Amino acid sequence: MQIDFHHTVSYVVAREAGFGHEDASQIAYAAQYVDDAVNSHPVRFDDGEMFARICSAHEMLDYRNFKELANHLVWIPFHFLPGNTNEQGHPAERFVCKPDSEVAREMVRACIRDADAQYALMRLGVTLHVYADTWAHQEFAGINHPHNDIRDIRHESDATRPWFQKICTYFGDCFDKATGQFVGDALPLGHGAALSYPDLPYLSWSYQDAYGHRHTRNNTLEFLHAADMMCRAARAFRTRNAQFENTEGLSDSALALIRMNFEKFTEEDGNSRHENWLRSLREDFGYEVVPQYIHKGPNSWQFQALGRAVASTPQGPEFHMWDGFYRSSWKLFHDALAAHQYDVLRRILPQFGILAA
Questions:
Q1: In which band, very low, low, confident or very high, does the pLDDT at 170 lie, cut at 50, 70 and 90?
Q2: CB-side neighbour CA atoms (13 Å) of 192
Q3: Domain containing 137: what range?
Q4: Mean of the per-residue pLDDT values for the chain?
Q5: How far, in Å, are 37, 104, 119, 209 from residue 54 at the CA level?
Q6: Mapping DSSP to helix (H, G, I), strand (E, B) and coil, where does residue 104 land?
Q7: Residue 356 is assigned to a structural domain of this protein
Q8: For residues 103 and 81, is the Cβ–Cβ distance under 8 A?
Q9: Is residue 239 part of a domain?
Q10: Any idea which of 50-64, 87-101, 191-205, 297-311 has the lowest mean pLDDT?
Q11: Residue 339: exposed, middle, or buried by beta-carbon count in 10 A (0-12, 13-18, 19+)?
């Protein structure tokens, strides 16, 4: 999923669940920031203190850098949560992402149990991002594995270029045009072979998987289901109810508006769809104020927490420590990433017999 879903749909979900504008904005910012937190080196301060941040994404999502991007600490807990199934009899299939799996539901429950933490709203945003991605990224794994080697993708959208044309251009020599397959060890990571098709809310498409089976996906219906379950999770978070799946979801009117936007905004560029969504939040949903998302530079969470570097050292830039840093949204977001990552990799996945780190 892209910024139109992770930011604006997450905001709608949070408002529908009973959160006010400020809290819903924090949740929505955190949900999108999972895709933009690309740095992992420690932050150094002028008083000698350090803060270890968490990387939850990669700079320039380039699926061609197969080995460089094969980072289990990023892909598995934040984007391709394992679904713990083994339909084809291959052990690595347990890493394949499945929509609304038992693993995903346990991840949501872990977030709800942490609802009184200082970083709780940030963790809810992180959790909603990962939970939503179990629908978008279903049937793909966050590891380099032949399971991800899909082919013959078809769709009838006039807004999106044909798959074969795009993949030949994007992967170049790593993709054999004659055979329609990846070359040698260039196994696709995640949904790299499907490019952005799994993330486009308006797209209906089909593909042949690595085992010769044909699959058909209607992203609009999948994303609507995701939004409804996200609302249940957010509503249960407010009441500390770990059995979130039995909680009320989205209203019929909200579902209708969300579906309208999924079907109406058919720009392939996620930022363009995001701008349309922001207008719709005012004009169609009736929100007097709408959330803002600035992921770097002035007014971003990072800038508000750190400001400009005050010195340059051989170890990197140095920042001025101030009391407000400990309460800053950026610092709390990274605390939430760390808590989420630890729970998924060290507690939840081992509970299902999966070791990923």
A1: low
A2: 30
A3: 3-351
A4: 88
A5: 8, 21, 14, 33
A6: helix
A7: no
A8: yes
A9: yes
A10: 50-64
A11: buried
